[in-house]
Structure to design on (378 residues):
């Protein structure tokens, strides 16, 4: 009788992000008697590493000390001496792919896979460099998150469709769920009872388009001056976002909350959730799923695979990227028509229950791992 699978997850670091959050949930959900994980971070461990340790997964980091540190593989092999792995699961960054190529051979790991959660790269015409494409082609499988993402990566990057598997992202719809305003008590840093509140949950990075969100907020304020806007997340663009808020003169209407670990409590206090991303990287955003699971209508820029998730004018609105006026119009329409907002929110919740549950995602990952390893039950 075969023993459980051992999977080595190799990443640059494990900071808060869509892929990392999903992998944390998968590691938490899959029984260790069947599939066991080990996380190695080439650089720093990252903000999510403590949560990975809490679920009993060993984490190590700090192996790669500079860009051309050839001793990184030697440090890794010493750290992993005596351990056996069936699958090497490597993130698609150049460092991790290159180290994974060497490490897989030295540790004699039979199967190597990756997962791509982005569609394009910020500031570049192509997502992958030639060297990355060669390394990706040597893997035994690549997981993607949406059908439209697969089409783009095959057409524009030349990935082999026979080596690609689509597993839709999912959220825990039992944790992220609609809540009636009457059952919600005041939340520190959250919207006040009865307040018109618009939120965005995204890392404070250039591709997330917070400037577009803020310009839309300023336009909405001219028509609905009582509306408040909440920016959840942290990142290097925070100073630029603060300057933009001051430039628009909406300091009294916008609150930067930083990272929040209480999103299941925070999101139901909003009237709607926004996604203002530019057409880079964004694919199938977890934040939009979480909002839909909480029964919120969403307003999203037309980027990535958002149309695989959001049904325009049914679960929310899809507006052109970089167009704050169209975004503001969608905000205003939903804020002025609570019945429309409720109908769209309910439709979004149903869509999550039907296609985008974490339970389904975890099961499909389980079957994929077993299939790649040649195990029965896949």
């Amino acid at each position: 009788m075969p023993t459980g699978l051992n999977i080595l997850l190799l990443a640059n670091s494990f900071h808060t992000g869509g892929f990392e959050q999903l992998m944390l949930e998968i590691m938490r959900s899959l029984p260790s008697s069947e599939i066991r994980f080990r996380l190695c971070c080439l650089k720093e461990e990252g903000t999510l590493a403590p949560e990975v340790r809490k679920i009993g997964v060993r984490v190590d980091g700090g192996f790669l000390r500079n860009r051309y540190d050839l001793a990184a593989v030697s440090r890794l092999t010493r750290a992993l001496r005596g351990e056996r792995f069936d699958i090497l699961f490597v993130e698609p960054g150049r460092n991790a792919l290159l180290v994974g190529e060497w490490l897989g051979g030295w540790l004699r790991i039979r199967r190597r896979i990756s997962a791509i959660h982005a569609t394009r790269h910020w500031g570049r015409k192509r997502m992958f460099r030639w060297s990355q494409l060669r390394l990706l082609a040597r893997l035994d499988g690549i997981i993607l998150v949406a059908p439209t993402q697969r089409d783009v990566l095959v057409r524009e990057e030349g990935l082999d469709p026979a080596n690609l598997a689509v597993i839709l992202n999912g959220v825990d719809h039992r944790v992220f769920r609609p809540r009636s305003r009457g059952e919600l008590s005041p939340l520190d840093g959250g919207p006040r009872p009865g307040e018109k509140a618009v939120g965005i949950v995204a890392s404070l990075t250039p591709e997330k388009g917070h400037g577009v969100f803020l310009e839309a907020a300023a336009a909405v304020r001219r028509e609905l001056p009582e509306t408040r806007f909440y920016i959840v997340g942290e990142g290097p663009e925070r100073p630029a976002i603060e300057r933009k808020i001051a430039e628009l003169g909406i300091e009294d209407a916008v609150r930067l909350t930083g990272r929040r670990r209480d999103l299941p409590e925070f999101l139901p206090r909003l009237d709607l959730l926004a996604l203002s991303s530019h057409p880079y990287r964004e694919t199938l955003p977890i934040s939009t799923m979480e909002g839909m699971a909480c029964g919120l209508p969403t307003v999203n820029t037309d980027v990535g695979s958002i149309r695989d998730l959001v049904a325009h004018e049914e679960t929310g609105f899809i507006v052109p990227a970089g167009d704050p006026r169209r975004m503001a119009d969608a905000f205003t329409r939903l804020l002025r028509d609570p019945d429309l907002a409720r109908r769209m929110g309910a439709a979004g919740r149903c869509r999550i229950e039907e296609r985008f549950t974490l339970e389904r995602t975890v099961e499909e990952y389980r079957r994929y791992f077993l299939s790649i390893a040649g195990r029965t039950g896949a």
About this structure: The domain at 5-170+358-372 is CATH 3.40.50.2000 (Rossmann fold). DSSP finds 14 helices and 13 strands in the chain. The two ends are 16 Å apart (CA to CA). The first strand starts at residue 5 and ends at 11.
